[in-house]
Amino acid sequence: MEKKSMQNQPLVTHIYTADPSAHVFDGKLYIYPSHDLDHDGPDNDNGDQYKMEDYHILSMDGIDSPCVDNGEALHMKDVPWVSKQMWAPDVAYKNGMYYLFFPARDKDGIFRIGVATGKNPAGPFTPEPDYIPGSFSIDPAAFVDDDGKSYLYFGGLWGGQLEKWQTGSFIPNPEGPSGDEPALGPIVGELSDDLLSFKNGTQEIKIVDKDGSPITAGDEDRRYFEGPWMHKYNGYYYLSYSTGSTHYLVYAISKDPKGPFTYQGRILEPVIGWTTHHSIVKFEDKWYLFYHDSSLSGGVNHKRCVKYTELNYNEDGTIQTIKPYEN
């Protein structure tokens, strides 16, 4: 009997999962999603419907192997500074330790990024007592480069509060860039050797078109919104991200992990549900896109499910656009 492929199918159905960060550790796939709680509250642009409180780590021995839920790895009650909303996480491995990076609101309702450590990629993780100094906003994505330098990418608009930090301090009701002004980019900071702090602060990443002009705030098909991810392919750094309101996953490339990055095109067309958030990983000599949609709940935006599909490159290094519901 032919083995059924898991591609474009929910990896688990007993809980709602989203925002998958996929990694290969010790020859095995580990997926670090956020955990959508099952509730019937309304949606809004501030993201109040995303009431996540903990993290469950998923794992797969092979790309079509059963997906295992390894149980609760970290809960907000164990993190002293957190008040609510533990959103999309990521993990890095260095120094014989696994580092779980996660965003959450502090006691003042401001999103910060925390870190927890563990000896096992499936958890459990022990959180540091406070968030990373100088951190803000959401969607941390960790990247350990070939030279051993480590970076953290983060930032999301609207509910993710990125536009509230344009001056370097938190402003509750700021004016964002106008439509013809450069869009806000994600933030990057090189991490200290122990991955618990930033070495020299953080900086905004510039995303430009192929003529070198900044992508503007009004260019909602291409501008940065949230969900940064970094991977490397053929000597280039690939920064991929969500456009938010137009529901695309897109990417830009650079020879420098801090940019500027030149926009290239779309990775994934819109999925069922408002948000789109992803990761890209090489496993057993093939590349895969991990993403989520709301198909498991019939389209409820805060009841999502994690999926994956194969990702293919053209000879020139561009990524072939994926249409998720076409065979």
Set down the secondary structure blueprint:
Elements: E1 16-25, E2 28-36, E3 54-60, E4 68-75, E5 82-84, E6 90-94, E7 97-106, E8 111-118, E9 126-127, E10 141-144, E11 150-154, E12 187-190, E13 203-204, E14 207-208, E15 226-233, E16 236-242, E17 249-254, E18 261-268, E19 279-283, E20 286-293, E21 305-311
Parallel strand pairs: 14-18
Antiparallel strand pairs: 1-2, 2-3, 3-4, 5-7, 6-7, 7-8, 8-9, 10-11, 11-12, 12-13, 15-16, 16-17, 17-18, 19-20, 20-21
Write up this protein:
The chain has 327 residues and is mainly β. It has a single domain, classed as 5 Propeller (Tachylectin-2, Chain A), CATH 2.115.10. The protein contains no helices and 21 strands. The strands form five sheets. Strands 5, 6, 7, 8 and 9 form a five-stranded antiparallel sheet that branches. Strands 14-18-17-16-15 form a five-stranded mixed sheet, with no helix packed on it. A four-stranded antiparallel sheet has the order 1-2-3-4, with no helix packed on it.
Low-confidence stretches: none
Find the CATH superfamily.
Answer: Glycosyl hydrolase domain, family 43
Shape: globular
Alpha carbon gyration radius:
18 Å
Helix-strand topology string: EEEEEEEEEEEEEEEEEEEEE
How would you state the average pLDDT, rounded? 96
For the record, what CATH class applies?
Mainly Beta
Observed structural traits:
single chain; 327 residues; mainly beta; Tachylectin-2, Chain A; 5-stranded antiparallel beta sheet; 0% helix; globular
